[in-house]
Amino acid sequence: MKDFETHKAARAIESFVIDDFSNWYLRRSRKRLWVEEKTEDKLSGYSTMYEVFVGLSQLLAPFIPFITEEIYQNLRTTDLPESVHLCDYLTVDAKAIHEDLEKGMEQIRAVVESGRALRSKINIKGRHPLPSASIVCSKEIEKSTKPLLELLKEELNVKTINYARDTTAFMTKTVKPKYSHLGPKYKEKAKSIAQVLDTYDKHQLYEQLIKKKEVILSIGAEKIRLTADDFDIVEHEKEHFAKAMVQEITLFLDTTVTPELEAEGLARELIRRIQSMRKEMNLDVEDRIATEIALDPTKRTSLQGWKDHIKQETRSKTVSFVDKPTGALLKKWMIDELAVDIGIRK
Fold it and tell me: Number of helices and strands (H, E) in the chain?
């Protein structure tokens, strides 16, 4: 602003409002704000939101003077100036800056974004819980992110998170023949060598090269000696692991899905559909509903332990598994390949 580069200032404010405040802070605060009691945590959330809204009205006043005046008047208390345009422009409060916390949160958000992209890549929805995640990083990064680990568990939707210093436990090494190297070296025998190598387990081949420094093949009556120079080392994830890299962090997700985790994922999918139906009926957040669900009998059994969770998340007085649901609103849903009928009423 001092340099009159107002376009840069506007983009910075836009980034804060959308990325930092709305898509991160407000989304992360939904559960604490939905609590019916006036807890200290809930009131702290409201206090932070109020301070941000007042600050944004003052910060944006030179850009959008009339809208910010309307916002300010709705938030103004008697101890504040009469108009947003009579307020002093905001300045940085250096005492309020917590550099270690900001650094850790920045790293956590980078891992979350990377984890979401990884889930999309391996076609596992974010609502489906996974057993664990592992973060390979330095001691410094572990120290800055560890206080925020519970937040990361929720965002990645995993049961546990572990730290490691290297990728050894999650990666396996194999070798790939350098065909462009074998051709000129062995000429007409190169094709036969390639055929024999195709019958080998590539990981065992790597282990043999590491231990014995050579691999001896029988091509007809001749013995062919191959060394590490004849191969490229290839590293890839072990079975049931998926990898993503961001900044100086490597993230591994354990993609094993147990029946218990599958049931939890299905419960989350049902909650999402019921919430969508509540919205369609224009229900208030406080409104209680009765919910009836019809789906495959084997799935009903696995979901019994999640009935209370579904009730709580959807503000349902009752959740019943039935053969044919009734209600003020009935809808058919497809969750992957599973057909589900849901009925809700006030």
Answer: 13, 12
